[in-house]
């Protein structure tokens, strides 16, 4: 087995996350997954919730499929098939995905509009991944239903409530009053999977919905201010970050697909505003009200997805943002250390169908933080909502998608130019990227095909004068004329099959003051990597265990090189 630098490896993180994906299903509920975990409880607790149905199944099935592409493995196939079977079982005769009724707690059966996004996302990934006509059949019915139930007026289409029922919309008055509660939650976030489904199948209903929902968001809703800010009104979920950022991700893709540069600028303005509320390493507030103290991994994944889309659209400055988020808060928010979690020895304290205390830590190892602090996997503050959920099924699934966004974007290009956008390790058909960061400012590029040009994004902090490119006995410096391409990338002309190109540069250590929910954190950086935060966390501290060596440690690992590449671009 070959040796590679022992640095961040996104495909490995995806495989680790599958432990949590397969650990959430509850055998007492025919595999319906638990939604949340309280890891501070003694003993720790896994709980069901009203998101157990289409939302959780869609997210987790999506994760299974993305992880398979990233790792080339499918040891979780049994769990994947369970998610697939149950997801299909939630569809009503009208083509919408329904939550099952639980009358003992007052939950009626309904088609929650937020759930529909996760359902369509997984059906789309299923079809793009496998080309399965079964996925297309259900997705076509689903898209047709989403179009059918939309309230259609001359200049806007909208959904007037969060739940649709077999008898129609629960409030005719909402329709009469032209109410569109939180259009980002119910409509905006649908744009991304709708557009990708259209790209995969040519479904025209999906594209038409994208156009109307984009119009609703940009021209009618008031979700975003003229400066890009999020509307903090309670009717708009107090500027809820996950739904706002997920909507921006869809708008960015729709703008790229239609060539709408004004819409791209609109997205960029709102994205920049959101970055101003986040930390440079990727922590985001949950919203602009009581949830602002807690961070959802889902929001970070939306930031990564939107950033990659904007960067592919020519706003290449966002590659640096995406890389910081991947290297830091996404991988740091993954639960690997269980030493602080206490599980029960037996099921005597369980409430079948609702909670379990058995093997909780072992089952959620690999999960991404449900609600976390800037310096801690757990958010346990006196302000806002206090301590809520440490793990959420939505964030488990989204975390894998965030890894996929990054992994899928490390190397891009065409027959003319291959670009290395992110300095993270990955193997592709054309080139393998081996990153030694943050230990050394070194990236090895193993070329597998004759290329016309290979370009590498060099971080701004590396400068250019001390950048060195080695090609066997030859090479050049970053200060030489012709070393750089017009897009700001380092240009490596005509690399040959079998050649190794090594790029080296200095890695500075710096400090910054980051403000999150009104509190200051002193952050130490080495290049794009956080190597320490003060104050440190208390429950499961983040960043405090990171070590830097003079040279990158090495380990044996066989990188995945997919036989067939597919993307969400």
Question: Taking all residues together, what is the mean pLDDT?
Answer: 96
SS-based structural class? Answer: alpha+beta
Q: Number of helical segments?
A: 15
Percent in helix: 25-40%
Strand order of the largest sheet: 12-13-14-19-16-17
Assembly state: single chain
The geometry reads as: globular
Computed Rg = 23 Å
What portion of the residues fall into strands of 2 or more residues? 15-25%
Poorly predicted ranges: none
* Number of beta-strand segments: 23
Cα separation of the termini: 32 Å
Largest sheet: 6 strands, antiparallel
Structure description:
InterPro entries: 6-hairpin_glycosidase_sf. This is Beta-L-arabinofuranosidase. The chain is an alpha+beta fold and 569 residues long. Helices cover 36% and strands 15% of the residues. The strands form seven sheets. The protein has a six-stranded antiparallel β-sheet with strand order 12-13-14-19-16-17, with no helix packed on it. It has a four-stranded antiparallel β-sheet with strand order 8-3-2-9. A four-stranded mixed β-sheet has the order 10-11-15-18. β2 and β3 form a beta hairpin. α2 (54-71) runs parallel beside α15 (393-409) and α8 runs antiparallel to α9 (204-221). 51% of the residues are buried.
